[in-house]
Design a protein that fits this description.
It contains 11 helices and 18 strands. By secondary structure, it is α/β, with parallel strands linked by helices.
Length: 409
């Protein structure tokens, strides 16, 4: 008897019919002889509606109370999914993140999982024949405050449970039938991939591919969890996320991604002295800001420099607060924030051993008359910062430039 974890996203639970469909999948797996843990997200649009309500009440809701509020969406889903399984004549028990002992740090809105303490409770319920339904996206910190893991955090809950329970597979059910070479909603020619390496998927997830949450992929890689991404509406095989192997093809570029809603923070006339960058980014970190693409330009013949970095637009308010503090404390420094930016990227482990990828990407963007504002690279990624309104065109251009719509030879 194998243990499997199934995760259903909000679009897979959008109404009663879809909840019953998810319940039938879990029941079928149980009837095939498996023990089944189901992780669910909030029903489609529920989180957005809760956020809207919060901002009707106040324009500055506290992060703690936002987590308290947003966690209710998943609690609705676990109860309804358990009821659907009961209706079909099978046993199910719904549990919140706190009830399975999913302990996190205290970073409200983007908490990280530390451990799952109630593993034995889950195993006991499974051994009694129940399907266990767990609320994704949420946990509790050391003070038992409810925390949330950030958008897409139910993926992370599912993979963490699969690792903790030594599950045979973690199945991620979505409204698409696998992982594509690019977002098929923006690139109609995008191709479904039979497999993708963990490192490639981790980069694509962090760069805007919305099929998987980046932390879930990181957990999968660290604990060697077999992840299979597939459709909620069909039985066709999806995409396996696997460990890199010489037996599997390492193409130059596996996929392309677009990350929107970015902003660039610019600090001008910063004193060029040892320790100042450390001080600046320590303050940024204290606000819980995740930064990317850090650039420093030192003025020739001057003891001052310009420093810039990108953040997500949702972090503008805390960014503005920390900038105000730094302007007050660091004489002569000026700041500016530019919004309306996006990042287009290509990813592939084959870049490690091939040249010319960057020039090919830049040429594609040039031909599409798209200006590049910043460039960042790593061993398997090339990213360009561009105007957000040009994002879809940029994604289609680089996808075509690397022939990603074609089957790999």
């Amino acid at each position: 008897m194998a243990l499997i974890v199934q995760k259903f996203g909000g679009t897979s639970l959008a109404d009663a019919d879809k909840i019953h469909r998810a319940a039938r999948r879990a029941i079928r797996a149980k009837l095939e002889g498996h023990q089944v843990v189901v992780v669910v997200s909030a029903m489609n649009k529920t989180t957005d509606e809760l956020v809207r309500l919060a901002y009707e009440v106040t324009d500055r809701p506290s992060r703690r109370e936002m987590d308290q509020l947003l966690s209710t969406g998943e609690q609705i889903s676990i109860a309804l999914t358990a009821m659907a399984i009961h209706h079909a004549g099978h046993d199910a028990v719904s549990l919140t993140g706190g009830q399975i002992g999913l302990r996190t740090d205290a970073s409200f809105g983007r908490a990280r999982i530390r451990e799952i303490t109630e593993r034995n409770r889950i195993v006991s319920l499974l051994n009694k024949g129940a399907i266990v339904i767990v609320a994704g996206f949420q946990g509790v910190d050391e003070s038992l405050n409810i925390t949330t893991l950030g958008r897409g955090g139910s993926d992370t809950t599912a993979v963490a449970l699969a690792a903790s329970l030594n599950a045979e597979v973690c199945e991620i059910y979505t409204d698409v039938d696998g992982i594509y070479s690019a977002d098929p909603r923006l690139v109609p020619e995008a191709r479904k991939l039979p497999f993708i390496f963990y490192d490639e998927m981790l980069e694509l997830a962090s760069l805007g591919a919305q099929v998987m949450h980046s932390r879930s992929v990181e957990l999968g890689k660290n604990y060697n969890v077999r992840i299979h991404v597939r459709s909620s509406y069909a039985d066709a095989q999806g995409t396996d996320i696997v460990t890199e192997s010489s037996d599997l093809q390492q193409v130059i570029v596996r996929g392309a991604a677009l990350k929107k809603d970015l902003a660039r923070v610019e600090l001008m006339n910063v004193a060029n002295r040892p320790g100042l960058a450390s001080e600046i980014f320590a303050r940024v970190a204290e606000r819980g800001l995740i930064v990317d693409d850090i650039i420093q330009v030192i003025h020739k013949g001057s003891d001052h420099a310009d420093l810039s970095f990108t953040i997500e637009a949702q972090d503008l308010e805390p960014a503005q607060q920390v900038l105000e503090e730094m302007r007050r404390d660091m004489s002569g420094m000026t700041t500016e924030i530019k919004t309306g930016l996006a990042k287009v990227s290509v990813v592939g482990v084959g870049m490690r051993t091939h040249t010319g990828v960057a020039s090919r990407m830049f040429e594609a963007l040039s031909q599409a008359n798209i200006n590049i504002e910043n460039i960042s690279t790593s061993e398997i990624v090339i990213s360009c910062l561009i105007n957000e309104e040009e994002g879809p065109s940029a994604l289609r251009a680089v996808h075509a430039a690397f022939d990603l719509e074609k089957e790999s030879e």
